[in-house]
Design goal:
- By secondary structure, this protein is mostly helical.
- The chain has one domain.
- It has two helices and no strands.
- The mean pLDDT is about 80.
């Protein structure tokens, strides 16, 4: 697995805040360090974002999960009725069919 590589520009520590006498001022209670992406390991995703169902299907494999895509027009011309009918169909499949791979 490949990881993103960052340049060292964001690794520089910020200069401490000084008071009028030239002494460093301690950070306030509860203050967090600045976020730096290079502090973490990021996998390379080839710049193609995925939504949650795509990630799930990729982790389960096509043989183990059933992913059906239907448009709302297949159920009804009314958007609200189409939502209701599609949810009824999904619930019926999960409850009544023996396939354990409906998620």
């Amino acid at each position: 697995m490949e990881h993103e590589k960052f340049d060292d520009a964001d690794k520089e520590d910020p200069k401490p805040v000084m008071d009028e006498d030239g002494n460093p001022v301690p950070p306030a209670d509860g203050a967090k360090a600045a976020y730096r992406p290079s502090d973490y390991e990021w996998t390379i995703t080839n710049r193609m974002p995925k939504n949650l169902p795509q990630v799930f299907m990729g982790s389960k494999g096509k043989a183990w999960a059933v992913h059906e895509v239907k448009s709302a027009e297949q159920y009804s011309s009314s958007q609200y009725e189409a939502i209701s009918k599609s949810l009824d169909e999904i619930c019926n499949k999960v409850v009544n069919e023996p396939n354990p791979f409906y998620y």
